[in-house]
Amino acid sequence: MAGFETTDRRDFFDLAIGNVPFGQYQVNDRAYNKLGFSIHDYFFAKTLDQVRPGGVIAFVTSRYTMDKQSPDVRKYIAQRAELLGAIRLPNNAFKANAGTEVVSDIIFLQKRDRPVEIEPDWVHLGKNDDGFAINQYFIDNPEMVLGRQTSESTQYGRQDFTVEPYEDLDLGVQLKQHRPRKKRSASLSENIQRVIDLETVRARDKGIAYERWATNFNSKAASKSLLYLQTSYGGSYEKLAQAADEMSAHSRALSGQMTAAQKRLEEIDVLRRHILNYAHTREVFQQYKASGYSKKFLEEYRQEIETHRASKRAFNELGLKKLPSKKTLDAEYSQVLAAKKSLYAAYCEEQRKLKELLVHRENLRPYLAPQEPQTQRRKEQDER
User: How many CB atoms lie within 10 A of CB 33?
Assistant: First the structure.
């Protein structure tokens, strides 16, 4: 038996199930300190590394994993795992064994093969019918909330979101009826464009009628591409092929710029969290230092001291001698985020144009492209 921070079984487990601890403090784990995540977010981040690609995570967690204002942790998770579904439990789900009335979620995730640049709807919040900010997933899938969405008075005298149970329904029965399901993926026949190879048709001896139909099918596709070639590139296949190569290179460059922008956003977010943690724990650490690094003081304020040290280590790793102000970081974050959104819009448009261009190039290649050695042609096909 050992602490989770000592676990190191990367890409090992098929399934991870748990009830993650909740708290506004960090776990001292060198590989994850730079993220600046609180303990509940840290459990998600590390577990994603411990399960294998395709592995599933089923975690019970506070509703604030899905509902917190900042989307940063959810985006980190979404880039590394697909949300299979989530179930929101009523506020009395753990009253019997924990004595608390809090809204909790069961979240189901499936690890991706690799991190991807993605920002699905569930990363963000929306407003429910009562005007409370909750996760967009539960707005789009209200049947996954197992109770009445309503409000309650907090200890600070304001109204906050909660989920009250249905008195006449058994929670266990509801859970059995609300199993998160992945949306059905399109079948292979729905997704794959069938390319008719005349040589294959002949080899199968389908007959002259089928061969004529196939020839007509290919001719129609080529005719559309010839019209495109004439109107867009003056009939020059070489110009079309060159444009496709240049657009592919530009698309890769845009993708690289988006990746760099995302990396900087993550760096800024981590730095902001560390600066905030550092400020909140600075006084306690000064008292610890004044006590002569008393062991008794350390045991009493271990969480604050470890958080403070983690922030200082992060500053040292970043080579910061002077901490930037929150205003400076917020301004840079907004600027980089706006640039990234602009890059993404340009990238999507570039991909749309590139797809069209590549289709026409491939339709015309058999007729207009210079003859290529068979081995070179096969190599290009393998690379695609």
Answer: 22
Write down the pLDDT at residue 35: 87
- H or E stretch covering 310: helix 302-317
C-alpha span between 43 and 59 (Å, rounded): 10
Query: Nearest 5°: CA angle at 383, between 380 and 384?
Result: 90
Residue 125 belongs to what H/E stretch?
strand 125-127
Contact 88, 103 (CB under 8 A): yes
Tokens for 315, please give them. Answer: 């500053």
**Helix residue ranges per DSSP H, 192-293:** 198-203, 208-233, 237-290
What span, in angstroms and rounded, lies between the C-alpha atoms of 384 and 379? 9
Contact present, 48 and 111 (Cβ < 8 Å): yes
- pLDDT tens, 154-184? 777 788 899 988 776 677 767 766 665 544 4
Q: What's residue 371's pLDDT?
A: 56
Which pLDDT score, from 0 to 100, does residue 179 have?
60
Are the C-beta atoms of residues 136 and 122 closer than 8 Å to each other? yes
Low-confidence residues of the chain: pLDDT under 70? 1-3, 5-6, 98, 168-169, 173, 176-220, 370-384
Please work out, in degrees rounded to the nearest 5, the angle formed at the alpha carbon of residue 149 by the alpha carbons of 42 and 123.
Answer: 35
Tell me which residue of 165, 59, 39 sits closest to 102, measured CA to CA: 165
Question: For residues 103 and 152, is the Cβ–Cβ distance under 8 A?
Answer: no
What gap in Å lies between CA 72 and CA 75, rounded to an integer? 5
| C-alpha–C-alpha distance, residues 305 and 284, integer Å | 7
What pLDDT does residue 379 have? 47
**pLDDT at res. 180:** 57
